[in-house]
Amino acid sequence: MKNHAFIAATTYARAGLSVIPIRIDGSKALALRSGERKTFEQRIATEQELAGWFNRQNPLAVGILAGKVSGGLECIDFDLDAENIFPKFAELVNQESPNLISRLSINRTPRPGYHLVYRVSNRIVIGSTKLACKVIFADGKETRETVIETRGEGGYFIAPGSPTSANPYRNNHSWKHHSGPRLSQVPTITIAERDLLLRAARSFDQAT
Q1: Between the CA of residue 197 and those of 18, 74, 83, 131, 189, what are the distances in Å?
Q2: What pTM did the predictor assign?
């Protein structure tokens, strides 16, 4: 019997997304041999490869590679303080483009956080980029923690359908669809719309 992770992985692959396996030890590390990552930055995994990773008793987590191989896919990852920041971000975007947020594929992550996922119309996506950071003082030291970043060319993120065991926070949360189209129906937006999203995200940077 096919399990939930395998069904999700094959659905994503058929939608043109490059699926990769992620370890379920909470590290979010790739479960690939050395050099294999480059392979799946160039092509979509076969159903046989997907079955080896996911159609088993203890399936690996379902990762998605962003960038050209997935049709110009990009993810904006809201992590630290997401419950507070994301609604404010959405309000900023809606002031300029009232329908944009509702058109995006939005998933919840275990921290809890949010993934906003879309394809860019020209299919050109740069590498993963930090958009907003926060300065934190602890034990007399100043550190910067990432609040919002992109997963772009060569980057990856964990997708709905992944087992809860991959959650590094051990809070019983998983990766789930939140709103908008499902990841398998990820929308394509214009370059101008992408610029608006990135500009709104950068407005939350506190470390400059």
Answers
A1: 23, 11, 18, 10, 11
A2: 0.93
CA atoms within 13 A on the CB side of 43: 7
Q: Are β-strands 188-189 and 113-120 bridged in parallel, bridged antiparallel, or unpaired?
A: parallel
* Own/partner long-range contacts of 13-17 (Cβ < 8 Å, ≥24 apart): 13/44, 13/45, 13/47, 13/50, 14/184, 15/183, 15/184, 15/185, 15/186, 16/44, 16/70, 16/71, 17/44, 17/64, 17/65, 17/70, 17/71, 17/73, 17/183, 17/184, 17/186
pLDDT in tens, 100-149: 999 999 999 998 999 999 999 988 899 999 999 998 877 778 888 999 99
Residue 8 corresponds to which tokens in the numbers above?
């999700």
DSSP structure string for 19-65: EEEE-SSSS--B-S-TTHHHHHTTSPPPHHHHHHHHSSSSPPEEEEE
CA 187 and chain centroid, separation: 14
